[in-house]
Here is the input.
Amino acid sequence: MFHIRFSHRSMNINRPLQGFPPIKGIEWSNLSILLFTHAVALYGIIYVPLQVQTLACAAVYYIFSTLGYHRLWSHRAFKASLPLQWFLILAGASAVQGSCYWWAQRHRSHHRYTDTDKDPYNSKRGLLWTHMGWVIFRTDIPPGGVDTTDLCNNVIVQWQRRWFFFIGLTFGYVIPTVVPGLFWSDWKGGLCFVASLRMTVCHHLLVVEGLIICQEHILYKFHRTYIGSTPYDDKHSPRNHFLTAILTMGEGYHNFHHQFPMDYRNAFRWYQFDPTKWFIAACGYIGLATHLREFPTNEVEKGAFTMKIKELKVVQDSLKWPVPVRDLPVVSWETFQERSRTHTLILVSGFIHDASDFLVNHPGGAHILDTNSGKDMTASFFGGILAMMRVGILAGGVECLGEHAIPPSQRLFIEGAD
Here is the structure.
């Protein structure tokens, strides 16, 4: 959370929590802030009456906090004018999740090394680590290396990095408390709701998209098939989830975001809920933002197409299909005639079909099949169901079969990649 670390004793834990990396100590400053903020928010919920003005103020300030670091500072998804840079860096500070440099550096590591030990909030380490453990505990495993040259050279980012303690205190606690106190005399409500409860929600939903990462872990480990979607890629844990998008002002389309991280949009479709995208687009319209990055629509749609094909492949593999032509034996006419005495074998377009089990179900009655066993019935019928009964190809027959060789249902058969 904070890039500022108070001095504390090293702490060795012989039996770390399951999934955690070796723990060397506790970030007492981070833990203190979390405990204080949660305690004050809980006190307010229990003992402080919530005024309508205070609730509205908390909602507006929450939206302000969510606009912060992510798309500009972590992903360089657009270029911001100086006024917009100041606005966003102070908005990010109001969530008290650490300096812009600290946050963006770790978020870039998360994207580059997703679900590996170099990912600071690796979802494979478990729900507790992914949600809060990486903030509270110290380990010997550093985040994976990333390029932060742009952050190091940005005067505003470095200014905020040096003075973050005072900036975070001012925009995280003081201003949210003072505004309700001065304008409608609700000092307690300002501290408990606009400052603490709003920040608590931010910590749980936006500590590196906290709810998204927690959701990803839950999906990855337990409910991978039932909650969230992977319309663009399924190699890693990130998933799209509409509820998360609502709670995080559009950051819930995480599957798209991980595939196309430098796109200023988190929601690709026009109808998807992404207020942050709309805000950036509006800033672009009035000249506060420029060079809004968008991945080519063709490439995005290819990703979506690939995932749809994968879904269809799963359905396809659950169905029973005719024996592939290459696997059918080539049978001589004599063998065909001999076996047709004991089995109902029908020759259609060069394929030999064993219709013995189909006699009672044939619409024209069993007599038609029985009396034509061992004969060429190509002129009579050809159907997809009959293709399921193929047992061989007649040698010297008509085995170059054109369009009839593949039933309609099988013409779009998806071959798996080796």
